[in-house]
Amino acid sequence: MAIFPGSSCKNTSNQWKHLELHHKEIWEELKGKKQPPKKRRREDDNSNNLLDNDSGRIEDDADAVPSTSDSAAADAGPSATTSASAAPESERSSSQSSFNSTYSEPGSAPYPTGGAHMQAIIRALALFIVRGMQPLSLVDDEHFRAFFKAIDPRITLPCRSTLTKTILPDLYAEAKAKMLVELSQTDNIALTTDCWTSLSMVGYITVTAHFINDKVKMISRVLTTRIVEESHTSENLAEILKAIFAEFKIPLTKIVAVVTDNAANIVKTIKDILKLKHVPCFAHTLSLAVKAAIHDDPQFSALIEKCRNIVTYFHSSSHATTKLNMCCGDLKTQVDEALLLCRRADLMLTEWEWECLSGALLLLYPCQFLTADLSSSTYPSVSKVLPAAKLFKDKLEAVISTNHHDALIVMSSNLRINIGERLMEYRLNVVHLIATYLDPRYKTEYLVKDLPRVGASCAEEHIAYQMRILSSSTANENAPVMPILTTEEDIRSAHNSFVDEINASRQGQGHNSSANAIIVLADYKKRPLQHWDEDPLKFWRMAKKDSVLLPLFPIATKYLCVPATSVPSEELFSAAGDLIREARSRLSPDNVDMLLFLYKNA
Fold first, then answer.
1. Between the CA of residue 124 and those of 167, 168, 470, what are the distances in Å?
2. CATH number, residue 223
3. Where in the sequence is the domain holding 238, given as residue range(s)?
4. How many CB atoms lie within 10 A of CB 270?
5. 42: which strand partners?
6. Under DSSP, is residue 60 helix (H, G, I), strand (E, B) or coil?
7. CA-CA to 190 of 20 to 30 Å: which in 59, 255, 323, 588?
8. Measured between alpha carbons, how far is 82 from 105 in angstroms, rounded to an integer?
9. Both 379 and 314 in a single domain?
10. What angle, 0 to 180 degrees and rounded to 10, lies between the N-to-C axes of helices 406-422 and 282-295?
11. Does 417 fall in a domain?
12. N- to C-terminal Cα distance for the chain?
């Protein structure tokens, strides 16, 4: 859309220059309408950053396009006015949009490959691909290239080979270097790990790391997804894990615990070969308990099988699914009407069966809630296991004591027994005991009390022992030296030192470590309990500034970083399923590791 007669140029900068040189009268008339460059806010939401955040910035829009109104075109001459009015509105809008996006800067030469602007574009493209699980061949797609060409023809997209062999590896190396710094700066790390098999029948092992940083916030990272070429024996898994620990410079002394499922091979790997503390996955244990409870109840098992047949029927028949969608009402009404329309009354459930299912739904709802609540890796969760188990068992006892269906009472009883047996290991696990004790929401309320070396007593013994270890390194340095009383100043100094020592002892920071532990723990237990949804790390952020509770701070952050489940590893499997589809089953293991690493960490 030209603004002066006879011109087909769409570059407004050149048009303004042309007016100034060859049409002085028009230039004098229009120059007041030329808009200066504007300040624009770049909404940089840190989308191109790895593992950290930067704030947005304001940039000069030196390429702002001057306003070219229809009146300006009319003043430029009759031919321009005729041309503008003759063009359809949609065509003019399209032309203006193309003009604004394609020619935001003078000239049309490609951006320099090594220039900052082009590097930023390529980085954003790489992150778009890994975060959205896009195929690497996207950059070679002709339509995708045409799309970028329409946006800005000066952008030169990389080919797939460059993306795979240069751009993504550089991004991976940058993120990994930052992660190594993070890991080196923390004293305690908890891990989760699990194995899985891809569509191409290739075995992998995933390892994730969890720790509390210096800002007292939970941090979760995916370390690696490594191919397992040998059989999944305990010895082979141990060698692979040792290699991963060495690669990420994680000494065994830093590892607080490793969370896995209950498979015998991985449990033996962690406990017997690597000699690390093992924490069984709570979600896996709860699932096994529910399945066992249903299996032990023949009446309810038969009902579940009947429900499974109904679902299979609707999934296998488009006619039945259509009828189901046509029916209105609640689920019971919809299913019953659809089965009647399809003449499958043999699949219909009785009123008793519907009531039994409704009761089971209420009975098992806590399992769904607890699995979701304890599977998060963004806040402490291991401390919730023992309280959650006790609250769930109390609910089951309430169901048994009321008038419910026989099938529900049997299942409730079976579930209570299974949970009690399967969670016995949790009640004896030091990690669970200490984490629960040092969570200001629970403390000793859900731990066994008044029994030596069990429950709360066991937790207090281990906490006191670790307090002595932490204080022993500085005890000799901080031991007071009694001055020789030769002057008035020596007398004052002796008194001040004596008072400081008394005050420190009363705050649990004296030279008697046993007395210190008693004082600190007694003060901690006197603090009010918090609600379920409160963040325990907020309490410990404040305790970091509290002289009395300070000795407990490093112990609390050590154990509260442990996840309650191995879901952080397992949830990567679904992402891997999107990545290693049938059409992409030939991805190399190294590329799988790199893409999943960037997907979760970038």
1. 11, 11, 46
2. 3.30.420
3. 189-284+564-601
4. 24
5. 57
6. strand
7. 588
8. 28
9. yes
10. 140
11. yes
12. 43
Number of domains, the chain: 5
Pairwise CA distance, residues 433 & 455, whole Å: 7
* Same domain flag for 547 and 587: no
Record the tokens describing residue 325, joined without a space.
């969608």
User: At 588, which amino acid appears?
Assistant: S
Strands (DSSP E) along 271-349, which ranges?
A: 278-280
Please tell me what DSSP assigns to residue 538: H
Instruction: Looking at the structure, tell me whether residues 198 and 274 fall in a common domain.
Output: yes
Contact of 382 with 265, CB cutoff 8 Å: no
Contact 280, 287 (CB under 8 A): no
Count CB-CB contacts under 10 A for residue 410. 18
Non-local CB neighbours of 185 within 8 Å, separated by 6+ positions: 213, 214
Q: Residues near 123 by Cβ (< 8 Å), separated by ≥ 6?
A: 48, 171
Measured between alpha carbons, how far is 425 from 288 in angstroms, rounded to an integer? 14
Picking from 142, 145, 157, 168, the residue whose alpha carbon sits closest to that of residue 110 is 157
Across the range 465-491, mean pLDDT stands at 62
AA identity, residue 338: A
What tens digit of pLDDT does each residue of 291-335 get? 988 888 888 888 899 999 999 988 888 888 888 888 877 788 888
Residue 176 has pLDDT above 90, yes or no: yes
What is the number of residues in the chain? Answer: 602
Domain boundary among 137, 153, 176: 176
Residues 328 and 421 in one domain: yes
Helix (H, G, I), strand (E, B) or coil at 19: helix
